[in-house]
Amino acid sequence: MRILRFVGRRLLQLIPVLLGVVVLTFLLVRVLPGDPIRSILGPNATEADADAARARFGLDQPLWKQFLDYLGGLVSGDFGTSIQSGAPVTGEMALRLGPTLELVFLAVTIAVLLAVRLGIWSARRADRFGDHSVRIFALLGNSVPEFWLGLVLILAGYAALGWFPAPSGRVDPDTDLTPLTGADLIDALITGNGPAVSSAAAHLVLPVLTLVIGVLAPLLRSVRASALEVLRSEAYAAAAAHGLPERTLLRGYLRRATLVRLPSLAALVFGTALGSTVLVEYVFSWQGFGQWALRGLLYRDYPVVQASVLIIAFAYVLVFLIADVVHAWLDPRVKI
């Protein structure tokens, strides 16, 4: 009940936060230079054509009227109409969000598991060859640009070795996959489409690996530092001096205390990865949320930019809520 009350209280706190994001995004996107109507009509359009297009999208109304209309649409789940495509933003976003969430969720999950395993392993071998190797790997992974790393993996994994499919989509078209959530691997599992499961998993390997290497370094360094702190603590030294088995020391003293700081950092990494996957999506032709949001920004597509910022803000708040609950579960000293 205590956790449920905490979650309910935090969900209520979401309302003013998201309202602030809505107001700021609505105003700031209109400060940007450029006219979205002129970008779709081209330089040869007459002023009458531009006025008609502005009236169609409600951009001829006073700013306060546009905001109230936008806010009223949000209440009913309507994010507006894309100026570029003329299609509802909600539908476009539903098609784009699933593939990106699948990509980011898999990458962050794998990165967290690797960071825990390698970070603790490295701390227990501090200043040895294995520890130095892990630290150098983490430093290199954090230093290499993701788009360059993605291209290298394509050259090695597809062009040279032929182990993975070409970076031309998310699943082979001849698998007849029925789209449900937009996340192809999940859709293939739900529909029991074996060939689509294999194809979607194969297409995921290289982009997920690119993201994993990019986000692993901060997680790994945090876990290693926390593990070293625990290993050098008096409590751990006393437990080891009493002759407790290695397994008990690892599970009861080291692992849980090491993971206390990880949820907040993992939430931060998840939010950052969600907003920065655009380069990975371009390299692998992923057609996800990042590409859609960037295209909206380039063409001053107000409804698309507003919706993408709001979704990223909502994802940030939600993952930090989950991180706080996990943190409280790992550390009994935290009161929620």
Automatic annotation (TrEMBL):
- Tell me the compartments it is located in: Cell membrane
The GO terms describing molecular function are: dipeptide transmembrane transporter activity
Key word ATP-binding present:
no
Q: Which GO terms describe its cellular component?
A: plasma membrane
InterPro entries to which the protein is assigned, alphabetical: BPD_transp_1_N, MetI-like, MetI-like_sf
Give the membrane topology.
Answer: Multi-pass membrane protein
What keywords does the record list, in alphabetical order?
Answer: Cell membrane, Membrane, Transmembrane, Transmembrane helix, Transport
Q: Which residues form the ABC transmembrane type-1 domain?
A: 97-323
Source species, domain of life: Bacteria
- Keyword DNA damage among record annotations: no
Residue ranges annotated as transmembrane are 12-32, 103-123, 144-164, 200-220, 265-284, 304-330
Kindly report the protein's main subcellular placement as a broad class: membrane
Q: Which family does it belong to?
A: Belongs to the binding-protein-dependent transport system permease family.
Supply the name of the protein: Peptide/nickel transport system permease protein
Task: Please give the organism.
Answer: Paractinoplanes brasiliensis
